[in-house]
Design goal:
The chain is an all-alpha fold and 258 residues long. Helix content is 66%, strand content 0%. It has 12 helices and no strands. The radius of gyration is 17 Å and the shape is globular.
């Protein structure tokens, strides 16, 4: 499958991450797209079937494939795995980061509520945190950049999670540990704290890795809106205008600021 085919699949399944990808320099896109395509595959594993066992098998297939890559084996014949294996090996990205994403996606299969805000934060770390750190590593980020990258990733993942609350509820899930407005506002304020912590340490992230941060471009305004108006979460009113979304991403891509 060509780059264009993979990109088209990402555009259909994860349009915001596709926009973030296209805002990256061409050389960065070549390394980011296989990671984002993998993330899409495991994220949708629980939603393409109503059978929990089949969903578990889909996720296990990806985990087994990653284990084979980690062991130095030839990647399975799959349009995502072959370019993914090349990126992981060329950029020395640990396959375990992606395995942790697949493992965390088991939550999507069940109907359990997160025990508390800390449990939700761990889920965001395992999914969004590991993906953004893998992307940053693929673009040459040093170990010193991990803390701010992960702080920003959690903030971005929380913003996306809050936007997805109505859809998750419609599918029978319980996305919030406590749906009370004051608890939702507190979650959003915690996310803003992660964002502030990342910005204080932004100097640790080299310019060549900034494209890996683009998927969190909406975090600030969405989290501020959720903190100010928590009812907007359940009512699906968190999203930015189309002009606002694209303008903010363009500004980040041109300036490298976030």
């Amino acid at each position: 499958m060509s780059f264009a085919d993979l990109a088209a699949r990402l555009e259909r399944g994860d349009p915001d991450r596709f926009l973030a990808l296209m805002a990256a320099p061409p050389a960065a896109r070549a390394r980011l797209l296989p990671l984002y395509a993998f993330n899409l595959e495991v994220a949708r594993a629980a939603w393409v079937t109503d059978e929990p066992l089949i969903a578990e098998m889909r996720l296990q297939w990806w985990r087994d494939a990653l284990a084979e890559i980690a062991a130095g084996g030839r990647p399975r014949a799959h349009e995502v795995l072959e370019p993914l294996a090349a990126v992981l090996r060329q950029a020395a990205v640990p396959p375990g980061l992606l395995d942790a994403i697949a493992a965390a996606r088991r939550w999507d299969i069940g109907r359990d509520r997160f025990a508390d805000a800390a449990a939700l934060a761990r889920h965001l770390e395992a999914t969004g945190g590991n993906l953004m750190w893998a992307a940053a590593l693929a673009l040459g980020a040093p170990p010193a950049a991990e803390a701010p990258v992960r702080d920003l990733a959690r903030a971005g993942a929380l913003a996306a999670w809050l936007q997805a609350v109505p859809a998750l509820r419609a599918r029978g899930r319980h996305p919030l540990p406590d749906p009370a407005p004051q608890a939702v506002a507190a979650l959003a304020r915690e996310g803003l704290g992660w964002l502030s912590a990342a910005r204080r340490e932004r100097g640790r992230i080299p310019r060549q890795a900034v494209a890996a941060l683009h998927p969190a471009w909406q975090a600030g305004p969405i989290l501020r809106r959720a903190a100010r108006d928590p009812a907007a979460v359940a009512e699906g009113r968190l999203g930015l205008s189309e002009a606002g979304r694209r303008g903010r991403l363009l500004w980040q891509a041109l300036t490298g600021r976030w």
